[in-house]
Amino acid sequence: MWQSLVQARKWLVAAAVMVLAVVTTAYFVGRSHPKPTLHNIPNALGLDIQQTSEGFSLSKSEGGRTLYTIRASKTVQFKSGGRADLRNVHVVVYGRTHDRYDQIYGEHFSYDPQSGEITGTGEVHIDLQGYAEGPLKPDQVPPDELKNPLHLLTHNLTFNQKTGIGETNDLIDFQSAQATGTAKGAYYDSKTNELQLKSDIHVVTTGKNAATITGNSALIQKEPRQIILNNAKINQPTRTLTADKITMLFEPDNTVKHAVAEGNVHIEGRGPTVIDAYGPRGDVNMGADNQAQQAILSGGARFATRGDNLTNGSADTFVVDFDADNQPARFHMVNNARIHQDPNPGKNGATPSGSQPMEIIADSLDFQLANGSDLKTADTVGKAQIVILPNPAKPQGGEKSGDKNSQDAGNATTVATAGKFHAVFGDGNRIQSLHGAPDSRIVSTSPGKPEKVSTADKLDVAFDADGGVQTLLQSGSFQYHEPPDKPNTSGRAAFADKATYTPADQVLVLSGSPRVLDGGMTTTADTVRLNRQSAEAFADGNVKTTYSDLKPQPDGALLASSDPIHVTAEHMNSRQQPSVAHYGGNVRLWQGANVVRAPRIDFDQSTRTVTAFGDGKHKVMSLFVQQSSDSKLTPTDVVSDKLTYTDAERRARYSGNVVARTGDGTITAQQIDVYLKQNQTENESQEKKINVTMVPGDEGPSKIDHIVAEGKVVITEPNRRAVGDRLIYTSDDAKYYLTGKSPSIFDATRGTVWGDSLTFYSRDDRVLVDSKQSSSTLTRARITK
507-778, which class in CATH? Predict the structure, then answer.
């Protein structure tokens, strides 16, 4: 857009040339008014009049050099009142420094001595020509070649010698190698050296960057040496500059010193992307040879783009610095700088759902430019922040809006800060990458949710092809903190070497020794993904989780202790509400000496529920230690397709091809429910956990109350085998109660015993047989232990 300011200077210089031409014309008329009165001219004026066969000539000299000459045909008529008419007039003006060769000529001029008015009736032609070699040439020698003359044509040009006012209401045409144009009417005051072009100013420049310059009126002044163009418009095929007023200030050599545009300044640059810049005032500071040095748009500047690039911005002041080739090289947004970039519109004008708008807000912004208009880099100055705004995209009619979490993610606002930001731009002046350091900080907020804050040494922002923000990468001592969003819930913290955040879905990916603290849950892995909106977490590779800060549960059993629970796995995902963690891939869960292994385990921390699943190739395996009446520790190993344990029920349900092994023997069944005794002390509850900790405590082990086995029940002990459909085992008396279709017990010494139900005890040789066909009998069999 600032390329337009450079062109504005060129266009206004062209306008200045046109205006100065009219000034020169008026100057000649003002200075030549005594000449037509041929009788009564004092010699003291330094005038030389010669009658020739073709008419007469009149010249004015000073210091031995001619200032101007006037030639006319011999037809000179004197009318009543001394009025004189001159025909075929030709005037040459050399100037006081003899560096001009300006010519004025026309068919008819008249002079009225009573009114003091000189009138060039009909066409009046003016040719303005600089003559740098003039002072070195003999007097009145014309240039060898007329270089780039400016030709003007008007009608009915008048000048009053008494008032010093020159005026025409007719059209003024002018033409040069650089421009052609017209103006309607002119008014010249020789006393103040001011020339006004009354209306309809229209200038068309030539060359590669041809422009059309228009204005309602113009004022040309000698002191100060300046041109003022009102309601000005400078138009090129690719850009336009408009303002209520444009003022050009000139050096004594007529080079432009300064240009000022005031009132509703608007610069429009057209291309694949249309750029509009606005401000109350614009200034262009010029150097040698009419080269622009600096352009300033002040008083509250702003810009906006249309087309392929949807960007807008503002600052107190815009400043453009030009290079030696007169091209914009640097662009500064000074004080209260802000840039807003929207993603490219998708089909039907909708914003792409994966892209989000972005703003840069800083005390000031400094840009490096290429080719006069292409943005290369930008740096923030002073305080700065990057704001990723909610995605304005809305589902089209008839489409589903998606789940609530995705909608909430789209409503999130993310603010990133750092000591300084450095941006790199790509095609279409779109930000391609953004780097912030040191002390990067990202704060994400959603309606009704607390702030989520992350910090790191550095921040890198990547953008997608549509121009929307794609990812934010924080690296170096990354930390993340998320306060609880509801009463009686825990917050979340995370640590890693680096983290990548995607604003579109609010997912944070941690790598480089990531560690997540979620209430009393600590997780490490190769990579961790956190959804900052839904609070869902995903961990992959060497997952290790420790549940600590557990309160003892007096009514619980296996997981009722306050000891830590440990889990290792290949994968994990969890949610805070409800507080369930899903582990997959060679999962191992343990607390103290109690261990569960499975391809997949779900653990609910709030209810202390464990659900373990096999996958066909791999079984669920659990190991917990029992304490016998003689205080001996006995391991219990259970294998099954599935395990479900709920601490409130104190029941471990094993289902699908269950095999339970103890020191006394083995029980197989389709389903086995193990009921544990209620926790009595914190130490006891600590013993009963199936959960997480690789450091066993000094508390006692879990205690079984009773066991219920169903479906193809088989009990195997040394020298004895029992079969039935249902088994109830009570630990206090070590009693087995076996029922079903023809339950039986095979003893290696006594043979087989069967009945409608069988009761036997592992602590002695008693077997109780109950049969509907006969009365109950008690058989003693010697059981080898």
Answer: mainly beta
